[in-house]
Predict the 3D structure of the following.
Amino acid sequence: MRGARFYGDKRIEITDMPMPEPVPGKEVLLKVEYCGLCGSDRKPYFNGINLIPGHEVSGTVIDANGCDIAEGTRAAAYLSVYCGQCRYCRGGKTNNCVNRRGLLGWTNPWHGGYAEYMAVPAIDILPIDESMGLDVAVLLLDTIGTAWHALRLGRAQETTRALVIGCGPLGLGAVAGLSAFGVEEIFASDLATTRLEAAEDLGARAVPPAEAAKLKELDLIIEAVGSQPTLMQAVRTIAPGGRVIMLGEIWQDWSFEPSSETMLKDYHLIRSWYFPISEFSENMQMLLDRKIDPQKLISHVFPLEELSEAFRLFLSGETRKVLVKP
């Protein structure tokens, strides 16, 4: 099969590789239809990785391999290889599994979706409605699944005024979700004009960063950049009793900045990272019910052989969601 090797320093090679060998009775063979580029893929793009990355994957099961899944099943692949036995898994909160064995496209032996085929644990196969395109199925993972889980934690359905800081694909997913959940006033802030235009297309009012910092009476702020300055901006700006969602990922040490704006009010600071499988069906039904137009979240589709160009464009900040199709 054809697959991608990430050597670091922005060097990607598409080459012939052995076919995956799924574990009998535990893993299926998935023919990859689409794989979405994610901001977290910057790590293998710049630093390299010793497996095939790509963790936002949809495809078709072509070999059930002894698992209780019908061949021909169209599906999305859940990121986390969860245990299914801990109290979080039993309660439907698979994203919080305490015995997680790994992440698809990040942890050996589970290669990811920048390839024609992929071995996927049977527990991570999420069947897709027959009427839904497999390009849209990719969105049900990070872009919608992760973002809308954050909105549920932040009680979006009780919210009147909300702000999204950072309008990459995850932030745009949050904007779309706020609209789907019926939030009356949605603001979106970003440095890139094209992404502000995308946010407006999804129902937000675009505001430059300086104006966003002056907004009042915000019940909910989603920080989707992953930086200390924007996180502290959110904390300073949130209304008393409001909720700040840390959706962007900050992997460096960061400092809380105490001041009258950050200390002399009640508010909730919530970290949200991925969605539980228990929310998947509801999210899919919301798309089937046309709560949003998911195609507005996708701007580009590249063949696998042009993965390097896909990354170059994606990291320019001039796109919405970018997909590759092996």
In short: The CA atoms of residues 58 and 76 lie 4 Å apart. Residues 144-271 form a domain with the Rossmann fold fold (CATH 3.40.50.720).
